[in-house]
From TrEMBL:
Species annotation: Thiohalomonas denitrificans
Record-stated family: Belongs to the HupC/HyaC/HydC family.
Location within or outside the cell: Cell membrane
Transmembrane spans: 21-40, 56-73, 119-142, 192-216
Domain Cytochrome b561 bacterial/Ni-hydrogenase: 11-232
Main localisation: membrane
GO biological process: respiratory electron transport chain
Protein name (record): Cytochrome b
GO CC field: plasma membrane
Pfam families referenced in this protein's UniProt entry, alphabetically: Ni_hydr_CYTB
Keyword ATP-binding carried by entry: no
Length: 250
């Protein structure tokens, strides 16, 4: 279906769209709960309430991590624009394409892409590195804070004193643990919590930058970049730079 010089292209498949919106909701929920936990003392949150918030944070984190794992699989087995080669900035021609795209922006005639433009690919790389780091450190902290999987049983065995069943340990209760083992465990945990907090704030900045980039691209390009994550379709000039042979047009 052709409209003057524009053509409607199907770009994002259902799997990518579901991943995107599940990721948006889970990341926002994790950021919100994390901010409350981080400022627990200032907010007057009790110890029991903090444990409950951490448990909620972990359960949302499981959704987040499983969704991220699903995206990894899509990167190898998904549709053309879901594949890593079309998403990350590692192709041989990326740097020349980045220069060409920046030149087109300076000239006021931006090059159009069905998938991510070169700056978008860089942003995707940054976001995925931060998301992966947050998922990995979060899973470690779930074990050290609450004895939750996948490391929880190992952590509980580490800190449980002789004669105490590891499964009976209560999160936040230090009276049931071996003091020396607990100190060792907390030392092991320390770099993970530091990285988790650092990435937390880096992710806040990256999300803000990502949203700003999407809005600017939408306003300047008017190519339906936002609506495409709902419909899967982009409205672009007839000759986008990255049109694959298998691209479906309507």
């Amino acid at each position: 279906m052709q409209h003057a010089e524009f053509v409607v292209h199907r770009v994002w498949d259902r799997g990518i769209r579901w991943f995107h919106w599940i990721n948006v909701v889970s990341v926002l929920a994790l950021l919100g709960i994390g901010l409350v936990i981080y400022n627990g003392k200032a907010l007057g949150i009790s110890g029991d309430a903090k444990i409950w918030l951490k448990e909620l944070h972990v359960w949302v984190g499981y959704v987040f991590a499983l969704n991220l794992l699903w995206r990894i699989v899509q990167g190898f087995r998904g549709s053309h624009f879901a594949r890593w080669r079309a998403t990350l900035p590692f192709s041989r021609d990326f740097l020349p394409e980045l220069r060409a795209y920046l030149d087109s922006l300076r000239n006021g005639k931006p090059r159009h892409y069905l998938g991510h433009n070169p700056l978008g690919r860089l942003m995707v790389l940054v976001l995925f590195l931060l998301l992966f780091a947050q998922a990995i450190t979060g899973l470690v902290l779930a074990g050290t804070d609450l004895y939750y999987p996948p490391l929880g049983s190992w952590i509980a065995q580490w800190v449980a004193p002789a004669g105490v069943e590891p499964a009976s340990l209560i999160p936040g209760d230090k009276s049931m643990v071996d003091a020396a083992a607990w100190a060792e465990m907390r030392e092991f945990r320390s770099p993970f919590i530091s990285l988790h907090i650092l990435v937390f704030f880096a992710l806040l900045g990256a999300v803000a930058l990502h949203v700003a980039g999407v809005v600017v691209t939408e306003v300047k390009g008017r190519v339906g970049i936002i609506s495409a994550m709902f419909t899967g379709e982009k409205v672009l000039p007839e000759q986008p730079v990255d049109t694959p042979e298998e691209s479906i047009e309507k």
